[in-house]
């Protein structure tokens, strides 16, 4: 869209595609709706003669496909005008230097939506002094940007060139960075329904919205029909679009992630909930976790059971022949310790698959490293004992110190205690807890939303 001043836009018009494909299915609310909201805002600004007199805002909007690497490639087009290219050795067929049209300069970029995409794009744009406005990113990952030069530039007296909604309303993004964030100016946009946008969006059609290059695809997806597009084959299972369909009349339309509070008001559902089918209330988002009957659980548990049975068989054999010369020569005390560590290593498999909870998470931390610590401590002590015996035998017939079974066990347990102490320090610094991720599986269709435990 041409204009005196050009703004960039990065929106997840499509979801992340499968392996080897950049883009997947169309995203209505977070993609098309947000993009049309930006176009609507530009129309309102450009139509107001008092807001920016004699200045028209233009836009260059690109699709991130919900993928950070793809968004990075797309964002490089925003800075093409700022990159100096050497064309001195390029000549046309008539010997004249070529006339290269320089792309318009983008002064700011709105987007992207996902935090991982916003962080990567912001790090590139800031090198060219292009202002990114990340309006839809989550706090968890974007808080990393707070620790980057964006906010740390404030310490040097520079103007921060990135803004994030809700930074001024919550303390979690600036935890342990209060001294850096003190005095910062934050942006907290007012969230409210705009009646004009609803009227604008439902009036969009194939004829009056040709500036949106993805609108034809949205039309097909929204009305479940097919247009006669040269690059697309007509699906016989879908009806043909007539072009007379209307948004809100022949298809459902509601603002992103909201439910109808009353006759005139819509409210956004909390992050752990989704709208009900009739959009009049919120309902809990289902939580998915690794189940015991899943192939991803059956295979490792089967291998763990085989290892536990094998280890138990070795322990029974050692107990049966406990006083034989072979078992005694192998260092039976440390051998039992070694077998205990191996048993714990196999046992941790069941804790990794069990439903996460405070107790389960605590045991995971403790046993995951404890099994390895017991195993390697016993092996190290046994190897050191044999080495010292042979080295002492070269010099004298006097046996070295601390080679008795009790001494060997004491050395092993001292080494194990170092691991246990580290785990308890970890408990004190970061207590065991569970996290439910509601953003990983939040598709355009809220009925398919899931939380990951």
From TrEMBL:
<dbReference type="InterPro" id="IPR000337">
    <property type="entry name" value="GPCR_3"/>
</dbReference>
<dbReference type="InterPro" id="IPR001828">
    <property type="entry name" value="ANF_lig-bd_rcpt"/>
</dbReference>
<dbReference type="InterPro" id="IPR017978">
    <property type="entry name" value="GPCR_3_C"/>
</dbReference>
<feature type="transmembrane region" description="Helical">
    <location>
        <begin position="334"/>
        <end position="354"/>
    </location>
</feature>
<keyword id="KW-0675">Receptor</keyword>
<dbReference type="Pfam" id="PF00003">
    <property type="entry name" value="7tm_3"/>
</dbReference>
<dbReference type="Pfam" id="PF01094">
    <property type="entry name" value="ANF_receptor"/>
</dbReference>
<feature type="transmembrane region" description="Helical">
    <location>
        <begin position="303"/>
        <end position="322"/>
    </location>
</feature>
<keyword id="KW-0472">Membrane</keyword>
<dbReference type="InterPro" id="IPR028082">
    <property type="entry name" value="Peripla_BP_I"/>
</dbReference>
<keyword id="KW-0325">Glycoprotein</keyword>
<feature type="transmembrane region" description="Helical">
    <location>
        <begin position="408"/>
        <end position="429"/>
    </location>
</feature>
<dbReference type="GO" id="GO:0016020">
    <property type="term" value="C:membrane"/>
</dbReference>
<dbReference type="GO" id="GO:0004930">
    <property type="term" value="F:G protein-coupled receptor activity"/>
</dbReference>
<dbReference type="InterPro" id="IPR050726">
    <property type="entry name" value="mGluR"/>
</dbReference>
<protein>
    <submittedName>
        <fullName>Glutamate receptor, metabotropic 6</fullName>
    </submittedName>
</protein>
<feature type="transmembrane region" description="Helical">
    <location>
        <begin position="366"/>
        <end position="387"/>
    </location>
</feature>
<keyword id="KW-0812">Transmembrane</keyword>
<keyword id="KW-1133">Transmembrane helix</keyword>
<feature type="domain" description="G-protein coupled receptors family 3 profile">
    <location>
        <begin position="296"/>
        <end position="453"/>
    </location>
</feature>
């Amino acid at each position: 869209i041409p204009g005196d001043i050009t703004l960039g836009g990065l929106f997840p018009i499509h979801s992340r595609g499968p392996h080897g494909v950049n883009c997947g299915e169309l995203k209505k609310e977070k993609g098309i709706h947000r993009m049309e909201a930006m176009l609507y805002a530009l129309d309102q600004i450009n139509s107001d003669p008092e807001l920016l007199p004699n200045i028209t805002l233009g836009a260059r909007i690109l699709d991130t496909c919900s993928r950070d690497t793809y968004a990075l490639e797309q964002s490089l087009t925003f800075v093409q005008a700022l990159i100096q290219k050497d064309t001195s050795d390029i000549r046309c067929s008539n010997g004249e230097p070529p006339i290269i049209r320089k792309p318009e300069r983008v002064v700011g970029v709105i987007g992207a939506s996902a935090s991982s995409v916003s962080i990567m794009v912001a790090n590139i744009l800031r090198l060219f002094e292009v202002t990114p406005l990340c309006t839809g990113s989550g706090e968890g990952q974007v808080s990393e940007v707070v620790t980057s030069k964006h906010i740390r530039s404030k310490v040097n007296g520079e103007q921060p060139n990135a803004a994030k909604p809700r930074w001024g309303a919550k303390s979690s993004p600036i935890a342990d960075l209060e001294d850096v964030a003190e005095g910062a100016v934050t942006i907290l946009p007012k969230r409210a329904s705009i009646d004009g946008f609803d009227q604008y969006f439902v009036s969009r059609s194939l004829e009056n919205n040709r500036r949106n290059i993805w609108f034809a695809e949205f039309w097909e997806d929204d009305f479940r029909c097919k247009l006669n597009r040269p690059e697309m084959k007509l699906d016989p299972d879908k009806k043909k679009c007539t072009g007379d369909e209307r948004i809100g009349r022949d298809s459902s339309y509601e603002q992103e992630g909201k439910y109808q509070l009353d006759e005139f008001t819509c409210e956004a559902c909390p992050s752990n909930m989704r709208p009900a089918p009739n959009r009049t209330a919120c309902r809990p988002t289902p939580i998915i976790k690794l189940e015991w009957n899943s192939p991803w659980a059956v295979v490792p548990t089967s291998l763990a059971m085989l290892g536990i049975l094998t280890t138990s068989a070795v322990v029974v054999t050692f107990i049966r022949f406990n006083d034989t010369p072979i078992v005694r020569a192998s260092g039976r005390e440390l051998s039992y310790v070694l077998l205990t560590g191996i048993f714990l290593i196999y046992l941790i498999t069941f804790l990794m698959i069990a439903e996460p909870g405070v107790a389960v998470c605590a045991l995971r931390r403790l046993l995951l490293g404890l099994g390895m610590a017991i195993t390697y401590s016993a092996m190290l002590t046994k190897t050191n004992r044999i080495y010292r015996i042979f080295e002492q035998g070269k010099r004298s017939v006097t046996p070295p110190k601390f080679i008795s079974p009790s001494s060997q066990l004491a050395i092993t347990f001292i080494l194990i205690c170092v691991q246990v102490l580290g785990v308890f320090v970890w408990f004190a610094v970061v207590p065991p807890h569970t996290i439910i991720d509601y953003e990983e599986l939040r598709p355009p269709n809220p009925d398919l939303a899931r939380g990951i435990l």
